Amino acid sequence: MQTTTDPIPFAGPRAPDIAAVKAKLKATWEDGDYAAFAQHMEPGALEMLDRWRIAPGLRLLDVGCGAGQTAIPAARRGIDVTGVDIAENLIEHARRRADAERLSVVFDVGDAEELPYADASFDAVLSLIGAMFAPRPDRVAAELARVTRSGGHLYMANWTPRGMPAQMFQCVAAFVPPPPGFISPALWGDEDTVRARLADGFKNITLTRRMYPRWIYPYTPAQLVDLFRTHFGPVKRAFDALDDDGRRALRQQLEVIYTRCSTVRDSGLEIINGEYLEIIAVRR
Question: What homologous superfamily does CATH list for 18-161+178-214+274-283?
Answer without folding.
Answer: Vaccinia Virus protein VP39 (3.40.50.150)
